[in-house]
Amino acid sequence: MSLAPVHLVLGEEELLVERAIGEIVAQARELDPTVEVRRYRATELSPAELAESVSPSLFADARVIVLMAAHEAGKDLAAAITAQAADPADGVVLVVQHAGGARNKAMADALRKGGAAVTTCEKITRYEERADFVRNEVRRAGGTIAPAAVGALIEAVGNDLRELAAAANQLVADTGGAVDEQAVRRYHRGRAEASGFAVADKVVAGDRSGALEALRWAQALGVPSVLIADALADAVRTLAKVASAGRGDPNRLAGPLGMPPWKIRKAQQQVRSWRPEALAEAFAAAAEVNADVKGVAADADYALERAVLRMCAARERRD
């Protein structure tokens, strides 16, 4: 097994970046268990210090030099990184992490053109990308996951990749490898019921007492007020987007609406109980509480309770 002397880890998804660097270090240690690993941040390193780090040692010791946030490097250091990557020293592996934006893009392009091994770690923002991540995590842990369980896990755990990865691995271990929706609901019931999305689901369904109970549980368990307010706003936006799209096939609407088919299907059922005037009132309540929990209101908990009651009342109003 050989290891490229220069690696470009491109992107800002922290978990994927850490894994990519970890795999490079693991390969280097497989080749030489005594390899030394040094990690720097671009803003903390001068061109002279970089040159010293990557220069051959007297005893030809193997080294992995990890340079984090290279996009933040100044002009001189960026030039030094490019020069060192073009002529790497024997026994030294240079790993350059770049966020992938326009800042110091010329340096990243030069490394790529110079033959650096490139690993892409772009930010995961779309639901389908997150679902693919969950499926890959379960497969990586040696298990399988049912399609419905993927959505249930994301709904229960949230969007943080670290938490999704930990949950996927735990589920594989606890279920013997076959993860279904029932297993997800069983192992993550408490968290799902205490989340902001659980509060929003109860509001959308018109369950006033259930929404207030879920809200109080969430507050008691320390769910940030901002997250609960965001979940309320997201629920209303989803209803409005689905309502405006009509009763089309959820699979075909997924692309234009930017949400998974299961979420569209669920919203199509829920929106039937919401008149346009009720949605407008709910929108206003969501906007107001988002401002309230960010400092406008003196009591964020009270502001959330008031918003929940106002949104439920809008749904119930028939005049």
Q: What can you tell me about this protein's structure?
A:
The chain is built from 15 helices and seven strands. With 319 residues, the chain is α/β, with parallel strands linked by helices. A five-stranded parallel β-sheet has the order 2-3-4-1-5, sandwiched between helices. Strands 6-7 form a two-stranded parallel sheet. Helix 2 links the parallel strand 2 and strand 3. Helix 5 crosses helix 7, helix 9 runs parallel beside helix 15 and helix 10 runs antiparallel to helix 15. The longest helix is centred in the C-terminal third of the chain and has 21 residues. The model has no long low-confidence stretch (mean pLDDT 88).
The largest β sheet comes out as:
5 strands, parallel
What's the Cα radius of gyration? 25 Å
Strand portion:
5-15%
Characterize the overall form.
elongated
- Class by helix and strand content? alpha/beta
* Helical amount: 55-70%
Sequence of secondary-structure elements: EHEHEHEHEHEHHEHHHHHHHH
First-last Cα distance: 74 Å
Order of strands in the sheet with most strands? 2-3-4-1-5
Query: How many strand units?
Result: 7
Mean pLDDT equals 88
Structure annotation, total helices? 15
> Poorly predicted ranges (pLDDT <50, ≥5 residues)?
none
